[in-house]
Amino acid sequence: MGKKVVVALGGNAILSDDASAQAQQEALIKTSKYLVNLVKEDYKLIISHGNGPQVGNLLLQQQLADSEKNPAMPLDTCVAMTQGSIGYWLANAMTRELKHEEIEKEVATILTQVIVDEKDEAFKNPTKPIGPFLTKEIAEEQARETGAIFKEDAGRGYRKVVASPKPIDIYEAKTINTLVDNDIITISCGGGGIPVVGQNLKGIDAVIDKDFASEKLAHLVKADMFIILTGVDNVYINYGKDNEQKLTNVTVKELEIYKSEGHFAPGSMLPKIEAAIQFAKNNPGKQAIITSLESLGKLKGHEQVGTIITV
Ligand SMILES: Nc1ncnc2c1ncn2[C@@H]1O[C@H](COP(=O)(O)OP(=O)(O)O)[C@@H](O)[C@H]1O
Ligand SMILES: NC(=O)OP(=O)(O)O
């Protein structure tokens, strides 16, 4: 049986400048072509994905349409709604691509509840960017009007930020693993999972970072590899500067030194680095890889792909 791999899809694998359903479906059709290459290499795929732009846009729509007769959905439910929409688009695209390649496999999207701690410090310090990028002026105006908090996001503009607690457990992990062990491609932990607390899995307003939720899933299903897909082929030190340097094979120890030197932007690359370090530490001898969708095509046999992190 092939290697079990968790693949965390970054926002750019789903959304371009056009936030329409059609444009996102077209982006996911392109994404699926790359993912099916992994299926051809006999990897057992467990796919997760982000939802930052999508959940923020949905929340805005809900708030604009809010009325007594048609109340806005809370954030936990908006996360569930984006799990459903993105999960449907991706499952649909994967099914079509598998059929085109005459590969007989099923794809299942699982609405996933991720257990967090309601006492997590994240609820006092919102850091997770969601929704559109705004200018500083518009962000300040919206902050005055709504009381929401906006922060600058990796040099790309200002975005609304919400609480982003760490994942403690994944309620559907056993279900996901059962499906994968029965050769079904799964899509789960969408948007980091629906944040829930306590024995009764009560929903709570937050957006969990999908890289952390994906690492937790990779650990719980005993994945052989953890791949984080994003907008760059590799992680860099001195990123964006004249002396930037591509990282290829790097140890946890080296990466922790680079992290302490501030090379990884919070809210963008930093969570990926922390999730990759966590997986490598939890799974000595196994690889975490940070790379782009386009690089995946090179993942044939033992070709070097992206930045490989090992303990
Ligand atoms: N040191 C770094 N090396 C590579 N990319 C970095 C680094 N620091 C920040 N980045 C930026 O972070 C981005 C990935 O974060 P983000 O776009 O938020 O992730 P996602 O792909 O999950 O949406 C990269 O595309 C790059 O623009
Ligand atoms: N939930 C989440 O981490 O989404 P993004 O990757 O789009 O920020």
From TrEMBL:
InterPro entries with a match to the protein in the record: AceGlu_kinase-like_sf, Asp/Glu/Uridylate_kinase, Carb_kinase
SUPFAM superfamilies attached to this UniProt entry: Carbamate kinase-like
Keywords tagged on the record: Arginine metabolism, Kinase, Transferase
GO biological process entries: L-arginine deiminase pathway
Pathway recorded for this protein: Metabolic intermediate metabolism; carbamoyl phosphate degradation; CO(2) and NH(3) from carbamoyl phosphate: step 1/1
Domain of life of the native organism: Bacteria
GO CC annotation, single: cytosol
An annotated Gene Ontology molecular function: carbamate kinase activity
Reaction catalysed by this enzyme: hydrogencarbonate + NH4(+) + ATP = carbamoyl phosphate + ADP + H2O + H(+)
Aspartate/glutamate/uridylate kinase domain boundaries: 3-290
Entry-linked PANTHER family: CARBAMATE KINASE, CARBAMATE KINASE-RELATED
Family of the protein in this entry: Belongs to the carbamate kinase family.
Protein name: Carbamate kinase
Record lineage: Bacteria, Bacillati, Bacillota, Bacilli, Lactobacillales
